[in-house]
Design goal:
By secondary structure, this protein is α+β, with helices and mostly antiparallel strands. Helix content is 30%, strand content 31%. It contains eight helices and 15 strands. It has a six-stranded antiparallel β-sheet, sandwiched between helices. A five-stranded antiparallel β-sheet has the order 9-12-13-15-14. A two-stranded antiparallel sheet has the order 2-3. β12 and β13 form a beta hairpin. The radius of gyration is 28 Å and the shape is globular.
Length: 291
């Protein structure tokens, strides 16, 4: 028989240690305070671990959220702080099959594990743009893209959007966009500008643009806004973080299905050219009034 806590873990995550764990690396740290108020001099060793196996990332994330007293964000990675026997255990999901755990008091240990893992995971070849900015792609993404638009004159560029809409970006802006699934599809776009002022202008412009677009979308629904569409627009956030402008949103599955099902079929161009380019017509002879 397993302990009740382990049974709950297996039930909530679907992960069984003896079946699903493939590899484990353990680091043994110097003894630290045991946190015993009656015996403050007592010390015990602490450990950090990297576990590789078959995980259900969504179930594991939900389980960790349930246990955690707090969640810290470090380099696009969630670090779950879980109280356990008078101390806090830090857990980070590095990829769909790799998890880092540390029960040391110093958060630098789990941060170092995240840094080293990301360094190893970086592509060693490929375009310079990818090598320089891949570290900003959140872990666990199913799709991502890195974009830098340039103009020959070196001025600001326009990001082309559907329906002929254009959106101006400051000069030398690099955009990192990504999609990942955590119950809903999470979209994130980070625009790395050259200054705080550029990021502020871009953030303000994006906020105004989204408010206008949202207003148009809502007003074109005579029976009220669609629930999934409303959820999507309500989830959109545009924030400035130093020289970055960050847009994030949740794409509900229902919203994605509607986008796919309602997408118009591919048709040819509908522009009508000058009369000389249209199909030829028979000349019409005018009748004279004389007989």
């Amino acid at each position: 028989m397993h302990e009740p806590e382990y049974e709950e873990f297996v039930r909530d995550t679907g992960f069984q240690l003896e079946r699903d764990l493939d590899e484990a690396a353990i680091a043994v740290h110097a003894p630290e305070s045991a946190g015993d108020l009656l015996h403050p001099e007592a010390k015990e060793r602490r450990f950090s671990q990297v576990l590789i196996g078959t995980f259900d990332s969504t179930k594991l994330t939900h389980y960790l959220h349930k246990l955690a007293s707090d969640v810290e964000r470090y380099r696009d990675t969630d670090v779950f702080l879980i109280p356990h026997e008078g101390r806090r255990v830090r857990v980070a999901i590095l990829t769909s099959d790799t998890v880092a755990v540390s029960n040391t008091a110093d958060p630098a240990n789990i941060k170092g594990m995240i840094d080293r893992f990301r360094q190893i995971a970086l592509p060693f070849r490929g375009p310079t743009l990818v090598r320089e900015h891949y570290r900003h792609v959140p872990l666990g993404c199913t799709a991502w893209g890195i974009l830098r638009l340039t103009n020959p004159d070196g001025q600001s560029v326009t990001l082309p959007l559907p329906n002929g809409i254009g959106f101006a970006l400051p000069k030398d802006t690099v955009t990192v966009a990504s999609l990942r699934y955590l119950g809903s599809i999470q979209f994130k776009a980070e625009a790395f500008t050259q200054s705080d002022a550029d990021a502020r202008r871009l953030t303000d412009s994006a906020s105004n643009f989204l408010q206008l677009f949202h207003s148009i979308e809502m007003n074109t629904q005579p029976s009220g806004p669609d629930k999934d569409v409303k959820l999507f627009f309500d989830s959109i956030k545009v924030e400035q973080d130093g020289t970055r402008s960050v847009l994030s949103a949740d794409l509900p599955v229902g919203f994605i299905k509607k986008m796919v099902s309602e997408a118009p079929g591919v048709t040819g161009p509908t522009t009508i050219g000058p009369a000389s380019q249209t199909a030829p017509t028979k000349p019409v002879k005018k009748k004279s009034g004389k007989k």
